[in-house]
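Dear colleague,

Thank you for sharing your sequence with our group. We've completed the structure prediction you requested, and as agreed, I am returning the results in plain text so they can be pasted directly into your records. Please verify that the sequence below matches your submission; if there's any discrepancy, let me know and we will rerun it promptly.
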Amino acid sequence: MLLRGRRAECLALDRLLEAAHAGQSAVLVLRGEAGIGKTALLGYAAGRAEGWRVLRAIGVESEMELPFAGVHQLCAPLLEGLTRLPTPQREALGTAFGLSAGPRPDRFLVGLALLSLLSEAAEEQPLLGLIDDAQWLDRSSAQVLAFVARRLEADSIVLLFAERGPGELDELAGLRDLELDGLTDTHARELLASVLAGPRDERVRERLIAETRGNPLALLELPHGLPPAELAGGFAVDSALPLPGRIELSFRQRVERLPADSGRLLLVAAAEPIGDPTLLWGAAERLDLGPDAAGPAEAAGLLTIGARVTFRHPLLRSAIYRAASPEERRSAHQALAATTDPKIDPDRHAWHRAQAALAPDEDVAAELERSADRASARGGLAAAAAFLERAAALTPDPAHRARRELTAAQTKHEAGATTAALKLLAAAEAGPLDELQHARLERLRAQLAFAVSRGSDAPPLLLAAAKRLEPLNGELARETYLEALAAAIFAGRLGGGRGVREMAEAARAAPPAPQPARTVDLLLDGLTSRFTDGYAAGVPLLRQALDAMFREEGHSDDDIRWLWLACRIAPDLWEDRTWHELATRQLQLARDAGALSVLPLAATYRAGVHVHAGEFAAAAALIEEADAITEATGSAPLGYTSLVLAAWRGKEAQALELIEASREDATERGEGRAITLAEYATAVLYNGLGRYREALAAAQRATGHDELGLFGWALIELVEAAARNREPELAAEALERLSERTRLSGTDWALGIEARSRALLDEGQRTEDLYVEATERLGHCRIKVHVARAQLLYGEWLRRQNRRIDARETLREAHEMFSTMGAEAFAERAARELLATGEQARKRTDDTRSRLTAQETQIAELAREGHSNPEIGAQLFISPRTVEYHLHKVFMKLEISSRNELQRVLPSEAREAQTA
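Please find the predicted structure tokens below.
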């Protein structure tokens, strides 16, 4: 009946099922107001999925949040397949479901485990997952299911979500959707006629059709609230309430016509969100309600009691609960708490006790706090925060209440609920906090400010928190000073009067480091010296910090947290080996832990190492992976390395589009470092294109601020652009500033860059020696893009010396290197120089790698290295079936028939990042 007028929607679902049956996964979000027919369409899909395994989950409107409850509901029939999952995934999912004890799993490792579980089951028969009322899923389930939805590709799986409307569930934003409108007038009349018996006034009928806007549930339900006289006599229909409110009112009126005991039973059912009939009858017995209380409600079609307790519609459940008085609700929850076994289901027991509490109760609050600990241990941070928030509300002692509010705010922050965290912070601040708690509160507020924008607001807030922590907790104060410095590094040129130098000056007041010093202490002392006493003073201390991280076999959580900063310090010191090692290790640790919150940043930094090694395809693959994960997790995209890669590739239009978008976004957020990066990328782009005036202007802007890890790089571009633009004084000044740093470093990368830059300005006998030194030194390190540039500059110099034969050999080598990398602008520059020597550059035919997409390249190389499909899937956060699908495409493109042939047809270039 509810599918009247839904032929187009039904056909769309049929097509999805057909495609998935052929091995092409499909995800669709059905959106529309309550009663529009979403559930009916899910039922239609289930009916059409003959031979499929159908999994169901239903979100329930409730203040109670149990971690991964929705995921557990969906995949409970598949849990026997847990034993076939890789150990880390099996343990993560088992811990999340409370089936086993273990360390708190990353919620996206749980997502990968669910993806593998579904993919494994779909090998036996196609799977249809139906998630109704998705807007009411617990947050952990919503995040995990959205992640899975974005990683499905080549499995016989269809996921259908139904939610009230756009923005109801942020996690589903961007997924393919289908907006459901009301029925046409013709179909609305047919549906209305099916429920109207006896005489009826046409004016009433037309008004019902107009005011329901074709909403099927409203058409079926609102006539129940109108007496026969009104239907027949044409009296006015009250339309003051919005449509969902009118439907709820109709439901309440129907409930009010039932016997009192039936109404009380309905309230107990409405207060118990999981729909467990055993709990319902146990609570009913405590309220002296017998089985006969269900009869009238079932006869009226409002409630069904079978394997689960289900309401006619979620609006009915909410209407019943809202209509009850506070005393009636507390009575229902008290009965449910008394029925729920605190040993078997302690969290549900605690929640019902909390809802039944008339006044603050420390015993109940303590029980909720224990529930929060359990939820946190299972990876359900959102649920833990909800328990803590309710515990705080029920805490009678003001000091304990403020402490719990502060802890709840911290947990909300970790769960990504910034607005809720700020609200709890305000509540905690109004309570009697001690000095340490006040300082922690200030620190959390600053961390929230940094998380929101990575802009200029956070550094002064973190600095104030660090100062307040000094006499209370020295180690925590030092960590907060480092956070302030890191935030100032992000803010960069937009930091105003609270820039990096000001933060570093203030950090001098930090308490002395404990002995032995932690990595965080070495980083703080090194950066403080770097930005107050100058580059030279900071080098020994920062090198000590990098060495500590480099030597460390097993990193502590704090060390892992600061690896990203180390990956910026290493290139600032021209330490290419350390940069490579730490970036590789950070990616390895993120992959091993399944930490998708960290993995995109780790992949981005490792991609940066690839760019400088001239491995553009590997860099692009990691950037694509990072982008896919940030999309799947709903995180802000990280465009840093994409910008640099685009500049080195030299496609002007594409690069400038990225650069301009990055500059605008960074300006809006107050992230000055990203603006400097955009200027550096512009300088690289225009030096490659041979447009030195534009390169010079960009390089001057980039060197206007001493940005960690960028200033030295920008000086390289400034020397070349100024020299080629015939501005020797500018070039000499930039070279002097560059040499101050490279000589202190002493690495082959540093000294090779200095020799190459000095050769650009040298007019004497040493010029050739400098170019030779540059190519030799740079050839000993991993920075291959600058090896090629040294060859190019050397070849250009040789041509200008009329040594055409020598120039051809050097330029030919530079052209080949740039072409192999994919640095088109620099390759074209080398080709023009070759042409000037009388030689035409050879056109490079498409190599094997250029035929493959970035993801296919990753998969092919992992397969070449001997990894199985499940192992590849675990590394790239896709299902084994999707790996198989892409390998099939790889074999077709490369014209091979087995994995063994990959060793022959793929280039042997190492690909450390994907195997890391």
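Summary note from our side: The two ends are 56 Å apart (CA to CA).

Kind regards,
the structure core
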